[in-house]
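Ticket #4471: complex job returned nothing on first submit. Input attached below:
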Amino acid sequence: MELRDRFDRKINYLRLSVTDLCNLRCRYCMPEAGVAKLGHEAILSYEDMLRVARAAVSLGVEKIRITGGEPLVRRGLVPFLGKLAALPGLKELVLTTNGVLLPSMAADLKSAGVQRVNISLDSLRPERFRAITRCGELGDVLAGIDAAESIGFPVKLNVVVMRGLNDDELEDFAALTLHKNFSVRFIEYMPNIKDAHWQDQVVSGEEILQRIGQRYAYRSLEKAERCGPSRDFRIEGAAGSLGVITPVFSHFCKDCNRIRVTSTGQVRSCLFSDAQVDLKPVLHQNDERVLLQALQEIVMEKAEGHCIGGEEDANPTFAMSSIGG
Ligand code: SAM
Ligand code: SF4
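Support reply: We reran it on our side without changes. The output follows.
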């Protein structure tokens, strides 16, 4: 079975946010005070998430990424992951985390069947890391990276690049790939607050590559299947790789293969569109055919593309922490 939208894009990737709570408060993602804890009736149970995932996989989804908020703060996550990993037809189960809880959880995630973890890290300098995350300790994330590496997870680091905040660390991050098989991916900062000057903070993928190119010679790598929107490179002789993800300045909408489900059961077919459908009433009907139909309808409504960064930019507001990036 294949899930295709009106523009003949094959939808085979589900991003599932299991919580909008987090143990950090990154300035570009969360309000300083955090987000209010919702009652359990507002949040999808693991049972309901599993039903959504099973339906999506039966329709052709092959890859699920668990995200949040910080997914590792939701209690009971590991047994849920084990059930997801066992879904027939699911080829990839991966997770995005800030890494803080990996020292105590990496082994359990691996045993549950998670194949890869992406770890977000925007600065290698302790004071700056604390300033960006408002409360984080760099050492905790570095310990998380070590834990992931020791247990045998391939290490992928996500770096959101913001002008004047951490763009002077591009070379330091690139250097991490020289001797270790790390994959470091630079992400263009996306506007998720109404800020007339947001464009001043975005460093385009092109500029990131050009600046790294002033220091290192690198070459393009071929794209693997289901590998997402990253354009990947390797510095000559390096053990690892670099990538850029350019949602703002070089849209990858025409190849978009994903839908997102939030922890409150909202399905979004585009991160930058306010359009979303509440799956909770559908789940309450307890009829799998209705659920399948709802997912198919949402995919058919998927927008052709977004216009962030373009002339028609409507700059929608959204909380990245509730959608999961
Ligand atoms: N807490 C986990 C983490 O930080 O990896 C998972 C959730 S977080 C919302 C998922 C990804 O979205 C992270 O890599 C984060 O850096 C990225 N992100 C959040 N806000 C962003 C923004 N405004 N622009 C670009 N990326 C953003
Ligand atoms: Fe938390 Fe991740 Fe958002 Fe940072 S980016 S506040 S770690 S959810």
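The first helix runs from residue 46 to 58. Closing as resolved unless it happens again.
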